[in-house]
Amino acid sequence: MFKSNPYHNKTAQWVVYVLFFGALAFVPVLSDDAFMMNQFATYGVFGMLALSISLCWGFGGILNLGQGIAFGLGAYGMAMTMQMQSQDPETSPMPPFMLNNSLEQLPLMWEPFWHTGWGIFIALAVPTLFCVIFGTIMFRARVSGPFFAIMSLAMLSAWYTIILDSQPFTNGVNGISPPAPLTIGGFEIDPYSGFIYWMVLFLLAAMTLIIKLITTSKFGLIVQAVRADSERVRFLGYSVSYYETVIYAVSGFIAAIAGCCWVVAVQYVSPAQLDVSFSISMVIWAGIGGRMSLLGSIIGAFMIQGGQSYLGDEFLATWLLILGGFFIFVVRFLPKGLAGLLESGLGLLVAKPATEREAAPGPVAGAKVQG
Questions:
Q1: Which of 31, 102, 158, 210 has a CA between 20 and 30 Å from the CA of residue 223?
Q2: Overall pTM surpassing 0.90 (yes/no)
């Protein structure tokens, strides 16, 4: 009888991870087109976002419809850092859009971004700190499920409005377009080079490894127990709000990293990165790929965004209807996403030979054996 699905075997899982990222490492070998490298780098950014949703929603049971907050704040922090790298403290200390908005001096909030190290630190720390504060307030009040989803969506809309209305400081709807690539230690990161792809791929693989270790640790098991029955975990003496806040903050940190990589790759950020539809898209990526599967969520992001890149222009607005219909189909018939379908397929492939071996006729008791 088939007793265990090898897909759940730890060794088999690590082999799948190695094969997956090994295949991604061959992309630059197959194509050295600069535009393709940049496009695949952005797919890697979307993969990080799907990964963060998988951690928060799939393993933590926290449906976050406002992941664009951490992504957008991280992206704006990186854009401000890159913008200030192009400014001269003596001759042109202020970005052009500030002069167009009649500002007479550089706002205080922009001052730390003169230093690249501090700028990157702030781009990652501010979104993470926001998640810690917001998560602590929500989870200590035992706000969960659809109520938390609604609150995160409302907070996303609030941040979108703040960024949009702060025209003199954020350039409003026009966003920030740094005129030059990011430079670190004298090295310029060309957004249309193989290096940007390798950088994003390394970060994606590192984040996947870290999350995998988190989810298989004692901490991760408690988080999954909270998802299954928070009241029972609370009865056992664990602080449910602590575990929920930590997993929510880690998810936000990953999204902030994705936001920084986004700006390095495309050299642009606008309020569109905090748009409601974009945050909901992240949930769709994870849902279609499999929110309980790290690789499944990444593949879901690759597949959906790849389809939008190559089919969106042909189907235009119809693409959204196609995507919505596909998502409804997956939720209705594949609750574990495409990863669950793959898991079931692998299970059947292994179970069939095992069943055939048990069904094979053996020597009948009492039968005369011909020798």
A1: 158
A2: no
